[in-house]
Every structure is written in C-alpha cells, then in structure tokens.
Amino acid sequence: MTPLQPARGTHDLIGEEFRRHHRVIEVARRIATLYGFEEWATPIFEDTRVFARGLGDTSDVVSKEMYSFEDRGGESVTLRPENTAGVCRALVSNGLTQANLPRKVFYAGPMFRYERPQRGRYRQFHQIGIEVLGAAEPLADAEVIACGWHIQQELGITEGTVLEINTLGDAASRDAYRAALVGYFTAHQDRLSADSRMRLERNPLRILDSKDAGDRAIIADAPTIFDHLTPEAAGFFAGVQRHLASFGVPFRINARIVRGLDYYSHTAFEFVTDRLGAQGTVMGGGRYNGLVEEMGGPPTPSVGWAAGVERLALLVEASGLTPAAPRQVAVIPVGEAAEAPALALLQSLRRAGVTAEIAYKGNLKRRMERANRLGARAAVILGEEELAQGAAQLRDLDAGTQQTVPLAEIPGRLA
C-alpha cells in the first residue's frame, strides 16, 4: 500500500520546524501583551459573506483563493483566508461595538487559501496578527506598526528588513485618485492583463497590486496618490510618520503599496525583506475604517496587521536562531525494586520544572545508550545500594562525572 501523504499545499510541523513556529507565536503573544492586546480566537470557518463583504469581490482572495463550500444544511461557509474580517465580525456578534473601545486584539492560528504552493507559502498556513478596533487617531497606526517591529526585533530577524508605508487617503482623496488612475490605465488598456482590465471597471486601485510583469511596467509610470490627497488625509499621514519616528521605527515611503484586500484606507504598510526570494513581505496591514460596518456594526475606525508564521520562521532559521530542544534528564532504575522510587523521583523533577524522562524498558546499558542518543544532560541512576541509603547516582553526561546525591536534593541540583 502506498503511504499516505499530506494534502497538496499542507505540511507537518515536526522537530526544529515546530520549535521555530512555536517561538514566533510565543514571542508575538508576549510582546503584544506588553502593548495591551488581549488574545481572541475566532472560528476557523465562517459564513462566506464575512469574507465576500469584507475583502471585496475584486480581491484575488475572494475571486480565486477561498475554500468555500455548502455544508449539510445548505449554508455557504468558507475556511478563513485571513482573520481581520472574522475579528470584526466577532466584535459585532458579541455586542462589543459600544463598550470599552478601542479594543486591542491579538490572534494566532491557521488560515486557508487555494494558491500555488511554494517555499514559505502553503494552502494551510498560519498567521499572527493584531487589530486596534475603534481608534481613529494616527497614533494607533504607528503603535501597531511599532508592535510589529518590536516582535521582529525580539525574534532577532530585523537584519535586511525594511518597513515601507503608504497612504490610501480618505474617501475624497481616493475618489480623485481613482479618476486619475482610470484616465491613465484606460490609455494603456490594450496592454493590461485580463484581470487588470476587469479591475479597471470595478476597482482601479487594485491594478497597482498586480503581479503581472506587463502590468508592472505600466504601473511604474502611473500617477501616485500624493497629488490627490486632501489636507486632512495628508495631515493624517504626516502624523503617522511623526509617531513612527518617536517610536524609533525606521521606514521609507512606497507609493505603490495598496495591499491585497479592498477594505484598507489611509495607512497601508509592509515589512519587506530581501532574504526570502520572491516572497519578500513578512508582515503587512493598514487602516480599515469601514470593515466593522460591513459586518453590520456602527462606524468603527480600525487598524492592524497580519504576518505569516511560516515566513517569520524562515527568517528565524536563516538567522541561525532555531531554538534548541530542551535537554532532558534520564531517570534510570536498576532492578524491579527501583522502579517505584524512580517514578516518584521522575515526577518530583517534572514538578520542579526539569524536563525528565524514563525509558519504558531495557537494562542499564540500553537505557544509558538511549539517554546519550537523546542528548540528555544528566542521568539519575537508582540501584539497590543507593536506595538503601536514600540516594541515587547523579551522572553529568557532559562532564563525565558522577556522585552520590540524596534523593531529596536531586530536583534542586538539576532545576
């Protein structure tokens, strides 16, 4: 029988890869907590309308990548392709739109998109993210960016990473900019890709996010939004830059960033790196002032970002910062009479915070061989003579030394 394999675009997290993955999430969780974020967990699948409304039907995610299906009740549900829409839906569903705003939310978990698998990009992937729900001030934009930068600093992966920021302006700015883009791209319509010709009619800003090589050549000379910003929008963007400088976050302006989803307004940003090949974005987000309304809630200005755990973990690996597996202590009983005292000592070590294990079978030689294979740092050997003294042999496997130690003192020696 042919061994079963993971579904295309999925992968198993084992050993070093899992430890890197776990470190990314734990560091992000800890730093987000320092910034006042609380963790939420939303369902892995939602009513399809949550994403179709929130992400926009011209986005690649909605038009090409969502895993949507009818359940047995005939309802259309979708495996979440991202989590911002779900967090906004949760805010509305749980009646939190009027109380204790702004809400500062952290999340971590799996997402699903049907796209071509490649290094660092899977059909089931994982994201961390933060959202500030109910804050209209540019300080909120700067703080969420500063939190993301702090997480990357703590992971030790900031070398070669650059923050790029842009503004999408307010509604009046975007209307004026939209008209300018329609005029420009219409003049080049015959050279645009099929997707971009469709977007020209429905959402011309999305053309700026095209990955098509022919489109990119045309986009290079397209007008930017900076000639169409209202004074209010320009002032907002200046405030974000001022606060980023105060937070000590370096950045550069990239007028072509629009992000891949339709709900963004004002600030858009990406942390990009040259260390992951073509997949250069490791964290990105922006402001989305209309998304909570799309979920049936009141106007709720919000801002946030998401980051792919797999890509961050690749940077951890490239930086030589893969966490080591905890080194164990092997507890080795010699003879049947030593087994019960050995198990009691094993639990005492674990309660003292010591990673410890006992082999399920084998004589002293085989158990010692297993301890060496696992890279154990010490072995505690309980034989009849030692037990008669209420002691055990404590062997330092790095130094090669051994001494007799009272059983009561062993957890303290190894903790």
UniProtKB/TrEMBL annotation:
**Where is this protein found?**
Cytoplasm
Binding-site residues for L-histidine, renumbered to this chain: E82, N83, T84, R113, Q127, E131, R259, Y263, Y264
One Gene Ontology term of the biological-process aspect is: histidyl-tRNA aminoacylation
Q: What is its EC number?
A: 6.1.1.21
Domain named Aminoacyl-transfer RNA synthetases class-II family profile: residues: 1-333
Q: Which cellular components does GO assign to this protein?
A: cytoplasm
Instruction: Cite a single GO MF annotation.
Output: histidine-tRNA ligase activity
Q: Which InterPro entries match?
A: aa-tRNA-synth_II, aa-tRNA-synth_II/BPL/LPL, Anticodon-bd, Anticodon-bd_dom_sf, His-tRNA-ligase, HisRS-like_core, HisRS/HisZ, HisRS_anticodon
Domain of life here? Bacteria
Gene3D superfamilies assigned: Anticodon-binding domain, Bira Bifunctional Protein, Domain 2
Q: Which SUPFAM superfamilies does UniProt cross-reference here?
A: Class II aaRS ABD-related (SSF52954), Class II aaRS and biotin synthetases (SSF55681)
Reactions catalysed, as given in the entry = tRNA(His) + L-histidine + ATP = L-histidyl-tRNA(His) + AMP + diphosphate + H(+)
PROSITE patterns the record matches: AA_TRNA_LIGASE_II (PS50862)
Q: Mainly localized where?
A: cytoplasm
Q: Which UniProt keywords apply?
A: Aminoacyl-tRNA synthetase, ATP-binding, Cytoplasm, Ligase, Nucleotide-binding, Protein biosynthesis
What binding partners and quaternary form does the record give?
A: Homodimer.
Q: Tell me the protein family, please.
A: Belongs to the class-II aminoacyl-tRNA synthetase family.
Q: What is this protein called?
A: Histidine--tRNA ligase
Native organism = Belnapia rosea
